[in-house]
Write a structure and sequence with these properties.
13% strand, 12 helices, Beta-lactamase, alpha+beta, 34% helix, two-stranded antiparallel sheet, 2 domains, single chain, 13 strands
């Protein structure tokens, strides 16, 4: 019933939007900070936003500001419906053309928990380690790592789980993360959290499918990947990321939690500012290159956005190497509650959303992708 209610409210909101004549309708009822949504400034050519992002008028990079204003208007209507948007950032051709912060809790310089967008950072670390020869191949078997661990429930299928299977969430391990709410005792993530987010808890799960046969979303796998990075580099994954990813991109404010085994979280937990989320997305948009340096291998970027596994229950959507991949040329880092780093290579576009959507509300969770397709991409001339 909650979903039906939101659909009805959204239809009403869209009707109001179609008859509105701009922001004047809401002047007596401000519901977010009154900063400008549309950027101003001149396009000054290509640059790297290591020190700071530049802004320009949308027209300077071929975007219709009227369509972007319609986007902001709908978000305001959704806020009226108590759908908790927190921020949006639109980067076209390397320039911020639209930006807004809708919550008093988060602003431009505040760290925001990016939840499972963390997984995409881990994927980048795997790609860097592979390029440096620290990892031989994505065909490496999971059991070749963690040599000190005594694997439980060992089987031929478990011995065949490769790095590729881990990256694509197709390891075949028994894991019920998307089947139950996160506060449900049957949820594997909940059980894993209660166990202290240990790597061994994941490694010891029973295999119920042959590797590569079935997609099963598993945040524990991403911690296993973080453990593998630590194993081959000799330093924690967050330190490896600081040296080889964050610092080169100009990201110096972040938070990365560590578990009791002194392993950096892999499935969730990292906090970044929205503008630094955009830097990571822009790195991938530029095929891993940053200011003349190849940070992440270009071949890894290409492989990460391939449609390796169909997303269970969601048609026309796929999973790459710890990225979500859509049929219409979009791939994204996606986190719980509506955190998105959207990368659209065809349009030289990066879009970042931060939100606090309600768990289980499909309408809310699909909203960022709908807004991208309804307003942002159509704004491009």
């Amino acid at each position: 019933m909650k979903t039906l209610k939101h659909i009805i409210l959204l239809m009403v909101a869209m009707l109001l939007l179609s008859h509105s004549s701009g922001c004047e309708k809401y002047d007596d009822h401000p519901i977010f900070p009154a900063s400008d949504f549309i950027s101003t400034g001149d396009y000054q050519g290509a640059y790297w936003p290591t020190e700071a992002w530049k802004k320009c008028d949308p027209e300077e990079v071929g975007m219709d500001p009227k369509k972007l204003k319609e986007l902001n208007e709908e978000i305001r209507l959704l806020l009226e419906m108590h759908i908790e948007f927190q921020s949006i950032l639109v980067v076209k051709d390397g320039y911020i053309v639209a930006e807004q912060y809708y919550s008093d809790d988060y602003g431009q310089d505040d760290l925001h928990r990016i939840y499972s967008c963390t997984k995409s950072l881990i994927s980048a670390m795997i790609g860097i380690a592979l390029e440096r020869g620290l990892i031989r191949s994505v065909d490496d078997k999971m059991t070749e790592y963690f040599s000190d661990h005594e694997f439980q429930n060992l089987s031929a299928d478990k011995e065949n789980i490769s790095l590729h299977h881990l990256l694509t969430m197709s390891a075949g391990l028994e894991w019920y993360e998307m089947d139950f709410p996160y506060d449900d005792d049957r949820n594997s993530y909940r059980q894993w959290a209660d166990d202290g987010y240990r790597v061994g808890f994941v490694l010891d799960q029973t295999t119920i499918y042959a590797p590569g046969e079935e997609f099963s979303y598993n945040s524990g796998i991403s911690l296993v990947l973080s453990g593998m990075v630590q194993e081959v580099t000799g330093i924690r994954t967050d330190s490896f990321a600081l040296q080889n990813l964050l610092t080169p991109l100009g990201i110096d404010e972040y938070y990365w939690p560590i578990n009791d085994e002194d392993i950096a979280f892999g499935g969730s937990g990292v906090r970044l500012t929205p503008r630094d989320m955009a830097r990571f997305g822009y790195l991938y948009l530029k095929n891993g290159k940053w200011d003349g340096e190849q940070i992440v291998p270009e071949t890894w970027i290409e492989t990460s956005q391939q449609k390796h596994m169909p997303r269970k229950y969601i048609p026309d959507n796929y999973y790459g190497y710890q990225f979500w991949v859509s049929d219409f040329g979009l791939y994204s880092a996606v986190g719980y509650g509506g955190q998105w780093i959207m990368i659209v290579p065809e349009h030289n576009l990066v879009v970042v959303f931060n939100n606090r959507f309600e768990e289980g509300d499909d309408l809310q969770w699909s909203t960022p992708e709908r807004l991208l397709n309804t307003y942002i991409i159509p704004a491009i001339n």
